[in-house]
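Q: Could you fold this chain for me?
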Amino acid sequence: MAVDRAPKPDGSHSRRKSQTVATVTDEDARAVAEFTEAATNQYGRGEKIRSKSVKDRKLRSNLKSLEAKNKQAAVEAKNVEILLENNAGLLEPENELERTYRVRQADIKQAVTIETAKKGFELRLDGLGPYDVCDYSRNGRDLLIAGRKGHVATFDWRDGKLGCELQLNETVRDARWLHISNQKNFAVAQKKCVYIYSGDGVELHQLKNHSEATHLEYLPYHFLLASVSTAGIVRYTDVSTGQALDQLYTKLGPPTAFCQNPHNAIVHVGHQKGLVTLWSPNSATPLVKLLPHHGPVRSLAVDKSGTYMVSTSQDRRMSVWDIRMFKEIHTHHLRLPGQTVSISDRNLTAVGHGTQLSVYKSDIFTRAADADTTQPYMNWGGDGLAIGRVRFCPFEDVLGISHEAGFSSIIVPGSGEPNPDTMEQGLNPFETSRQRRETEVHALLEKLQPQMIALDPNFVGNLDLASDALRRSDRDLDAKPQDRIAKLKQRGRGRNSALRRFLRKSGSKNVIDDEKERARDAMERQKRRNEEKRDRLKKEYGPALERFARKGNQT
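A: Sure. Below is the predicted structure, expressed as structure tokens.
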């Protein structure tokens, strides 16, 4: 009986289908891997933990799960980028001959929306200036201005609502917003000491230990108010408890500039001799000393990531430093000495010199100094008003300028971060009074201690790899300190002796310490002994055999 059988499938067709599926699968896997790598580089939390080297099974599994959670968090943060409402942008010239620094504020206001154009305004306060102080709150909603003659005012600059207005009838040197709360407290450095006022102008505290303060800085994550006085003394006060920390003596005369590093809470102090010193409340001596200028430092600023520092001085130089390596990137000259510097969220740098203001792109941090890098992105001035201070508004394309006739707000496209992190404490521009109250409570519960301020903020959580013998020797107070140079002198001698190796390895460094001086003295004494011994052997051998006197080191 005949049976109809279905034709057998073609083997080549099935192989082509499997190869196509494998190719698509490989492309998808490659795309996913590239996306994951980009997300990890942008939103990752440091280097990956090598769990394979961990012998304990339970600890190894915990580390693997932790790494998987960090990886998933980075991927999810990358996925929600599509929900971001705004994008950052800069002024772009239409042709090669057009220059962005020739664009005026009137042209920008005509090209933007009505709400954005309202952000550029001017306050004329004749007879109360000059105004040397302006400061925005961390969420960019409130503005604080202060005149040298004692006029202080706070207001919501978007809505035009006045918070308080004070006439102190006393010299005002500086002013700073404190932690964001419903009270909206701020500190003012007056002639004799520092005062803290509430948002409605009521005096709350008088900090007598901050005497004759010239500059103020507030560390929001530590609740510390830092000041430097005319005597060159750096002082810290915890504004949540009122506790004062130890005073730090710079011993370099009256300071000329003062700023903080937002990344690690280290304060930078500029001095008359061109020095910039870095201070922490945990050290009585400066952590680092830099020499960016040969004249008095006039202003300092550090970017949000704590990577770059910009300084200006009386010698008309503007210097850009990479403070991770403490190395100067480049420097160029200004027309007049720069009096004030500010760096925006997008790394645009504003420098006020005389009656002019120049804004530079972020290329000054990433490229060498040339004609394109040192060319300003925007300019402002021309009214003959001496500029006191410039500050970028957080999360807005706005630059605030305090000058001798009042305050001016100008529009700088591309300067602000377009998408604020509303989960960050104190950075939500649209938070309500209830949210501010909750934010203050959480900030106080998560307050960092002053002992955690260091050049490398990632030292917290690192393993202490010191051996048990070293810990015991540190605890043994009766043990005599080991003399490193004496040990080196007892070891082998010759052309490659221990002393020579020590000097060869440390001699190239431009540092002079006690050990190096003692090692050099020991080498000189050893050399003199060898020369004396050689002369003695020459006399003993006589003129015929003196050539057999050895030149090497002998005992």
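A (continued): The CA atoms of residues 256 and 271 lie 5 Å apart.
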